[in-house]
Please model this.
Amino acid sequence: MHLATATRASSIGDHLRRWRATRGTSQLELASEAGTTPRYVSFVETGRAQPSRQMVLRLAQALDVPLRERNDLLLAAGFAPLYSVEPLSSPTLARVDRALDAMLTHHEPFPAVVMNREWDLQRANEGAVRLFTRLFAPHDLPEVPNILRTVIEPGPVRSRIRNWDEVAPALLERARREAVAGVLDPATAALVDELHSRDDVASRASVVPHSELAAPVIDLQLDLDGEVLSFFSVVSTIGTPVDVTAQEIRVEAFFASDERTAASWGGAAGD
Model:
């Protein structure tokens, strides 16, 4: 019994140290934010104290740990997960599901999509389907395209991006910046590192000014059958989520960057 308790305490301690290092937070700062003492935080990290369920949640809240990883912390401390991981189609997320559908519909005829935290496409409005169909032509659309791979790796979409040299490094920078709670999950971090290590991406990232990478808006210039259309996007997330899926999804809505694109895309939708 004592051995099992020590193992769980050591495990939660490892998690706590890692998140403290990620946030650059001292034991004193964490203790102050979580309403405990530095001595207690030290005891948890070294396995000399086993935190209660409530204390685990207070420590996680103080470190702004994403909900999925808060479940991991609870499991490491010997408790059941607290936050559900429901599909969007579940009754629990019915309101979120309806809101997403409304956002996608109201953004017609311009493209809008829903992605998970790994940048896998989850849902798209008719405008986005039309855009992706033209981008992938003459190939069929992938069943679940990953937006990072689709844009950065060689293929039909990349070949149609006129300003790919600027878009590719900026997109990877954005992936890091927009990560849930500011921290990339292991799968997405591995994907970003893989794509960033490509010679064609690394060579561009080394010469693109940091101010350009961190720019609030970067136009996406697309060559669609000889016509160049320019879009920029706005990303929305769910406020105060209590479900893992709800916290991790993002809605990206595309807007015309110029009058020519607005007129062309709106006209295409009308036709």
